[in-house]
Amino acid sequence: MTASAPGAVEERFRASVTRFAGPVRAAAAAVVAIFGMVAAPGDALPLAFGLLAVSLVASAADVFRPSFALSVLRAGAVGACQPWLTSVPGEASLWAVNVLTITAITWQWEYPPRRTGPFLAVLLAVGLAAGGGDWLPVALRVVVESVLARAAFVLLVRSTARTDAVRAEQAALEQAEALDRDRRRREREYLALLHDTASATFLAVASGAAADPAAVAGYAARDLAILTGSHREEDTPVDLEAGLRATLAGRGLPVDAVWEQVPLIPASAALALVRAAEEALRNAERHSGAASVSVRLTALPGGVVVTIADDGSGFDPSSVPAARRGVRGSVVERMRAAGGTAEVRSAVGAGTTVTLRWSRG
After folding, report:
1. Mind listing the domains of the chain with CATH numbers?
2. Mind telling me which residue stretches traverse the membrane in this protein (predicted)?
3. Which residue, among 326, 296, 313, has the nearest Cα to 182 in the 3D structure?
């Protein structure tokens, strides 16, 4: 059974800990080395200067490019040289104790126990051999501190993983709600289209206005073509403004709408315009960061123009991946299939404007 990939919060946490563990170890070990060199006996100063140089090199590596081997060398060298760093024979060197403690704790934030455990055991053995009996309580303390540091790190990682799981669940719920809202909007569009086609035909038959069976059959065939999207020439004229108003209801952003008098247009063209406008509005809500969006319906000779504009962050249209079909599939291709056009103008920091045009050919 393979472990699942870490989420965004967990990845950021791990990256932050890894980035700061080295510099923390570098600063603490360097300070300890300076004080250790100052406290060293006079006859051990050459050795102390050498250990200081090793510590500073390892600290520099910790800052710029952490090296596990150099951190082992630093702690091991100081631990092995304890008999010469203390003025009291058999006394544990504070320099060695502090360096090993710092190293052991920060390792728990960077490396797994299967890597640090064997080396920590070796360093403790070196300390015990060089420091004598005073090192036994030191060794026990270092082990306890290492376990606690690792336990804290694991708990924080699990906390970030739970945060990622909650976020993923919330995103899934929001996506399901968005899909449900989209389904309900499409149902409303379809019912509006049904009202303008089949319902009108049924009413005409019921009232006796259409008594000729051949005419009724023609109306039914036309209605079926409109409802299935295969009719493009003689659709029932419908009011585009009504469909757009229904689409604007309950949007996630405030909408500033301007309506001009426009002619009735075929139902299939109106449906394509409404759905393309809905996709443009959805993109503005999800990606633009705008405070509001404007929608304008105007007339052109033999047709209509619908303009959706926002003052959000904008984007570079040429950088949109081919797999992203929101604008390309739901807007441009849908309008082309309906006999119209769609133009998307945007730039980073300059907002986005989507212009939908349809006119009788």
Report:
1. 8-164 (no CATH), 236-361 (3.30.565.10)
2. 20-38
3. 326
